[in-house]
């Protein structure tokens, strides 16, 4: 994501003969890019939420199917017990006494009656539990379905908003002069940079290796990136799994202060937490900023207002 501060560090002061609207066009482009970046993160989060809810829906459907099978099985057992009772199998104590040939025969018959009664009660209770479980699973599946539908509608709206914002930003970008476009497209420092050993160093090396590649909203690499996909892929290359969105990355690891920043730390920008970069050291960071600007190194504090810093390792 580009901001006025980012571009200001990349561009020379405009000469007095510059077109009157050049600065305004650049400012507008930066504003639209920032808004589009936030919408992009919102859209990505909506996709993750929908995926999670779909998992809940699938589980609820599975629970419902299992409960229905249990209900059918137990209902059959209860039906058999009921049929036996109707056929006279469930004798009373008096009838057992009358038909018994001996005291032992009576005790045997009484034991059978008690077992039959216990089985019947147990089967009825299990059937009741299974029916209740099926009802609960049905309700859960229905709620998950409705939630998924709402999330899908929200995601569609966010996508529509993003597409509109991107179109506006692209229009504004096209209005910039070729000189400004050329300066924005510069790759900056491409020199070899020593990275520390360990997870953070491996992640940083991956991010540095992406310098010069284009920014594309919603891209997951390997030939183009958005801000959060670059950070996620960098740590994935080092064997660490972190969230896809800048929002998820804003709570990954542990927080550190600005004066503690070291290589590999995730720098989170804006109160909206809609942009992320990776610290190269205590002064510089590498990030994917916005369309028309490649992955490059910039001064940490020039990228935008810092809302938080997270350390994944150490």
UniProtKB/TrEMBL annotation:
Domain spans labelled NlpC/P60: 197-314
Entry-linked PROSITE patterns: NLPC_P60
Coiled coil: 22-84, 141-186
Pfam families attached to this UniProt entry: NLPC_P60 (PF00877)
Keywords for the protein's UniProt record, in alphabetical order: Coiled coil, Hydrolase, Protease, Thiol protease
InterPro entries xref list: NLP_P60_dom, Papain-like_cys_pep_sf, PG_Endopeptidase_C40
Gene3D superfamilies on file: 6.10.250.3150, endopeptidase domain like (from Nostoc punctiforme) (3.90.1720.10)
Family per record: Belongs to the peptidase C40 family.
Protein name (database record): NlpC/P60 family protein
Organism: Lentzea kristufekii
Lineage, broadest ranks: Bacteria, Bacillati, Actinomycetota, Actinomycetes, Pseudonocardiales
